[in-house]
User: Which sequence fits this backbone?
């Protein structure tokens, strides 16, 4: 019985040391990294130019539809049934064209999504690889992104590895 107690005591002492081991945690602010990384800024500017061009085209389509609709509303009482049906058909076609364009450019699998994936993925991969290298160099157990959904109520600044990641990326 005494041997059993000694054996169990050693196990708990050993586990106690393991349980009290300190975790090293770091965090980054990926928004700051993306804001300060020239490659990410260039990529975002290219995307912004495309978005602006597409939005301008969409605005033209919307204005064209609205102008035709306003004209239709003014004249519908004096139009023949056939003319009214033709104009309504044109309005429906214009609205479909507008919605198709919006979906093609800005939809879930639209060109914007594809371009973001194409342009930003290599940059995101490079940032992730750099974060991993810094974490390994700093012997960190975990690295969190404070600009994401994880809420930090308190974080010591000495665990912020954002500047180390930025320095390695340059």
Assistant:
């Amino acid at each position: 019985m005494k041997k059993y107690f000694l054996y169990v005591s050693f196990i708990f002492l050993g586990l106690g040391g393991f349980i009290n081991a300190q975790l090293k945690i770091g965090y980054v602010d990926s928004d700051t990294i993306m804001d300060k990384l020239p490659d990410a800024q260039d990529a975002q500017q290219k995307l912004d130019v495309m978005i602006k061009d597409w939005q301008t085209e969409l605005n033209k389509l919307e204005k064209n539809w609205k102008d035709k609709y306003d004209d239709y509303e003014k004249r519908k009482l004096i139009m023949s049934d056939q003319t009214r049906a033709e104009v309504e058909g044109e309005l429906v076609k214009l609205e479909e064209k507008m919605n198709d364009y919006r979906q093609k450019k800005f939809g879930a699998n639209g060109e914007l999504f594809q371009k973001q994936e194409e342009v930003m993925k290599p940059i995101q991969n490079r940032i992730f690889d750099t974060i991993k290298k810094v974490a390994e160099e700093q012997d960190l157990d975990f690295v969190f992104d404070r600009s994401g959904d994880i809420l930090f109520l308190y974080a010591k600044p000495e665990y912020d590895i954002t500047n180390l990641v930025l320095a390695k990326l340059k």
User: Anything to note?
Assistant: The helical segments are 2-19, 30-36, 38-75, 81-106, 111-137, 162-169. The chain has a mean pLDDT of 83. Strands lie at 25-28, 142-145.
